[in-house]
Design a protein that fits this description.
Blueprint lengths: L6 E6 L7 H14 L3 E5 L2 H6 L3 E4 L26 H13 L4 E6 L1 H12 L3 E6 L15 H21 L3 E6 L6 H9 L4 E3 L8 H13 L5 E6 L5 H12 L3 E5 L11 H19 L5 E6 L2 E6 H6 L6 H11 L3
Parallel strand pairs: 1-2, 1-4, 4-5, 5-10, 6-8, 6-9, 7-8
Antiparallel strand pairs: 2-3, 10-11
Helix pairs in contact: 1-9, 5-6, 7-8
Length: 326
């Protein structure tokens, strides 16, 4: 090892995502296999500042790979956005003999990791968010489970929408990113897909599309609306008033974050967690584990935070063509 690492910490930060437990498990067991002790930090950066720190052994992560959420808990922490909070966090790491930390979360969590690295604590980020909005990686842990959860729920709503000859607006999560909406829109055969990156807020186009399809004999209409656009309930009222067609809004909400992770999320989480432990044990710091072009790689956090990510234009055009909305 380029520098001696005796103890590493692991924490989950920000919104929870299915597969986080699989990352924790991989970090713990990979580090222990290399003779490095592991401490779990509960409730993210808030738990670090509160010194909610526990020793972890191989048995500590038994029977968790199939569980959703995170056994360490997670929280948002305003105090850690301040220089005082960041210094306190680094001091607490040193007090507990923690030489480095694996941070599982999104871009906001990476900024906290970056701050700890500047304070002399080796840090490695692992992408854990259902939003798929981390620019440096093609995949983030939790997305596959969340999009499958949403797809199955939308199928059920579509059944009743068809029975009642309704228009249904179904809102999926994703913050300001439209990846969940795009994938569900294509997979569920939606007639309209509203993405923050693409939507022009011309509601009349949607109304015209509904009326045109009804005249063609289509008895129901499915709109997938991204969280970044929102206002699904008021949109439903306006569409019903304009078309005369019964319109209902369903907001799937936090159910998309829960549930047992899929095989893909368990696999990616396990490899990424092991990779993160290896980076720390070799003395690396201020890096983010990523998946690019079929390989697991790592980037400097500074570089990762400057990268840009957009909805692939071809995939968006395919979604419009397949919906018949062209």
């Amino acid at each position: 090892m380029s520098q001696e690492i005796k103890t590493i910490g692991v924490l989950t930060s920000g919104g929870d995502a299915p597969g986080m437990n699989a990352v924790i498990r991989a970090v713990v067991r990979k580090a222990l296999a290399q003779g490095v002790a592991v401490k779990g930090i509960k409730k993210g950066y808030q738990g670090l500042l509160n010194e909610e720190i526990v020793e972890m052994q191989a048995a500590s992560v038994s029977d968790i790979i199939q569980r959703g959420g995170t056994i360490l808990g997670t929280a948002r922490c305003k105090e850690f956005t301040t220089s005082e909070g960041q210094k306190l966090g680094a001091d607490i790491c040193k007090k507990h003999g923690i030489d480095g930390i694996v941070v599982i979360g999104g871009d906001g969590s990476y900024k906290g990791a970056q701050a700890l690295a500047r304070q002399g604590i080796n840090t490695i980020g692992v992408p854990g968010t259902i939003d798929l909005d981390i620019s440096c990686t093609e995949y983030s842990i939790g997305f596959d489970t969340a999009v499958n959860t949403a797809m199955q729920a939308i199928d059920k709503v579509r059944d009743t929408s068809s029975s009642h000859e309704r228009c249904s607006i179904i809102e999926v999560m994703g913050r300001n990113a439209g990846y969940l909406a795009l994938w569900c829109g294509i997979a569920n055969g939606a007639e309209d897909i509203l993405l923050p990156e693409k939507y022009d807020y011309n509601e009349q186009n949607i109304i015209n599309n509904i009326i045109r399809n009804r005249k063609k004999g289509k008895t129901h209409h499915l709109i997938i609306n991204a969280e970044g656009i929102g206002h699904s309930t008021s949109m439903a009222r306006r569409i019903e008033a304009a078309t005369g067609i019964e319109t209902r809004a369903t907001i799937l909400g936090y159910m998309q974050r829960g549930g047992s992770p899929t095989c893909k999320d368990r696999y990616f989480a396990s490899i990424m967690g092991a990779y993160a432990a290896d980076l720390l044990c070799s003395g690396k710091s201020n890096r983010v584990v990523c998946y690019q072009h079929g390989e697991f790689v790592d980037y400097d956090i500074e570089e990762a935070l400057t990268m840009q990510k957009e909805i692939p234009e071809y995939e968006y055009q395919v979604s419009r063509l397949l919906s018949g909305n062209y």
